[in-house]
From TrEMBL:
Stated name of the protein: Trans-1,2-dihydrobenzene-1,2-diol dehydrogenase
Record-stated family: Belongs to the Gfo/Idh/MocA family.
Enzyme Commission code: 1.1.1.179, 1.3.1.20
Highest taxon, organism lineage: Eukaryota
Coiled coil region boundaries: none
Stretches assigned to the GFO/IDH/MocA-like oxidoreductase domain: 134-247
Catalysed reactions, semicolon-separated: (1R,2R)-1,2-dihydrobenzene-1,2-diol + NADP(+) = catechol + NADPH + H(+); D-xylose + NADP(+) = D-xylono-1,5-lactone + NADPH + H(+)
Length: 334
């Protein structure tokens, strides 16, 4: 039986996700419906992707009995309401990252998923790339000894993009870009909470962060640093340094297609798309989609690779970094 997907929002990321699903066997994954706030947008999306059912509201999608899981691709200020709509309708959910605007909202989403006994996962797609799977294997095998330092950067000029700079659209480099560095560091350190976080940043006139630099200190004298910026371009790679060697993740570290382990490079190409994509290596979203299918087949309510605890820790770290940098969203005041 194919996993039947409903797509919530007909935007750019939903397009790329739907293209990614098409790289997987049709007998495993099918998109059966799309919903957008404007019917014409949903219709155009459905025509492009050959989807039979079109809805002009998310509520209609939530009521569709033939959907196993909903992909939530709305911008993050709307994640809380969308996730709760679908979990309360007893739908499984794959929600784009960041899962919500702050830890309070994340808890509300996770509680709703548990209360309704449905599967829910934050779409931290990077974790499911073959390169990321290999990183976890190498670390588990002690390939580079004891990890002492992790560094990651994600900086791209996005100041021309409204959702990156406007506060009411959830703008800011940390929630859009820095989350990739944070999740990477957290993955390497097995979801451990850091002992301390020191953050410094520069905010735009809109009140969101343009650039942030962060130092995290972990137990056993281990450290991590990352930089994220929506104002400039950096190499956007990552490195894990241990007592016996290092693992380098060449750019793009957020959707990696190669690894350099102690100077030896291995390639992990993503599938070819059948339609043009909006973002880099987006067909790599097929890996998270397949993870969702496997979890549903096993009757799991969360993924062991991106569990609820990791989503909550991510949000708590983001909250603390924003507190130090001075970024406050309206959602923080409710």
């Amino acid at each position: 039986m194919a996993t039947r997907w409903g797509i919530c929002s007909a935007g750019k990321i939903s397009h790329d996700f739907t293209v990614a699903l098409k790289t997987l066997p049709a007998e495993d994954h099918q998109v059966v419906a799309v919903a957008a706030r404007k019917l014409e947008n949903a219709q155009e999306f459905a025509n492009k992707h050959s989807i039979s059912r079109v809805y002009s509201s998310y509520e209609e999608l939530a009521r569709d009995p033939d959907i196993d899981v909903v992909y939530v691709g709305v911008i993050h200020p709307y994640h809380l309401s969308a996730c709760k709509l679908f979990t309360n309708a007893k739908k499984n959910v794959l929600c784009e990252k960041p899962l919500a605007m702050n830890a309070k909202e994340v808890k509300e989403i996770l509680d709703s998923a548990k209360k309704n006994d449905v599967f829910l996962m934050e779409a931290v797609w990077t974790r499911f790339f073959p390169a990321s799977v290999q990183i976890r294997n190498l670390l588990a095998q002690g390939e580079i000894g004891e990890v002492k330092m992790v560094r990651a950067d994600f900086c791209v000029p996005l100041l021309h993009v409204p959702r990156s700079v406007q506060k009411d659209l959830g703008g800011g480099a940390l929630l859009d870009l820095g989350i990739y560095c944070l999740q990477f560091i957290s993955m390497v350190y097995n979801g451990e909470k850091p002992e301390s976080i020191q953050a410094s940043g520069i905010c735009l006139e809109t009140g969101v962060d343009e650039s942030v630099a962060v130092i995290l200190k972990y137990s056993k004298n281990r450290m991590a640093t990352f930089t994220c910026s929506a104002g400039v371009q950096l190499p956007n790679d990552a490195i894990i340094a241990g007592t016996k060697g290092k693992i380098q993740v060449p750019s793009p570290m957020w959707c990696p297609t190669s690894l350099v382990v102690n100077e030896k490079e291995t390639q992990y190409p993503v599938p070819e798309p059948h339609l043009p994509l909006n973002f880099t290596n987006s067909t790599g979203m097929c890996y998270e989609a397949e993870e969702v299918r496997q979890c549903l087949l096993k009757g799991l309510k969360e993924s062991p690779v991106m569990p609820h605890a990791d989503s909550l820790l991510l949000a708590e770290m983001e909250d603390e970094i924003r507190r130090q940098v001075g970024v406050v969203y309206s959602q923080d005041c409710q």
